[in-house]
Amino acid sequence: MILVEAPVQDPRPCIDYRKLNNITKTKFFPLPNVEERIETAPSAKYMTIDLSKGYWRMPLTPNAQRLTAFVTSFGTYKPLRMPFGLQNSPYEFSKMISQLLEECEGFSVPYLADIAIFSNFFPEHLRHMSTVLRRIQNSECSINY
């Protein structure tokens, strides 16, 4: 395990999962074409939401916990939530967000940890934002602010 520093962020612990990724079957989940979806409403009002630590909202199965365990000088640890660096983390996260926003396809577009919300009229936009925010709140996800 190493700590990776990024500007304006706390150091992030990272595990080298290359050996596990080499034997993992890759899963694919289609990412939406955000520009194409937004172009369908050229005069729309827009808002984007950035989800915070989305992978950490996804629990691992007991088998996945065993496979992603790591050793430090303090002991052996098993992640309980999806860590960064796993080959299929983006797939699982994109799938979760798409399921979260089912029935919101007409006014929202998820793209990894970002969600674009668009509407033709401001009162409609407020309703759409409220719907998406309620779904995020009910899912226990959080938003970067």
UniProtKB/TrEMBL annotation:
The lineage of its organism: Eukaryota, Metazoa, Ecdysozoa, Arthropoda, Chelicerata. Residues 1-145 form the Reverse transcriptase domain. This is Transposon Ty3-G Gag-Pol polyprotein. One of its GO terms (biological process) is DNA biosynthetic process. InterPro entries: DNA/RNA_pol_sf, Rev_trsase/Diguanyl_cyclase, RT_dom, Viral_Replic_Matur_Polypro. The gene is TY3B-G_0. It comes from Araneus ventricosus. It comes from the Eukaryota.
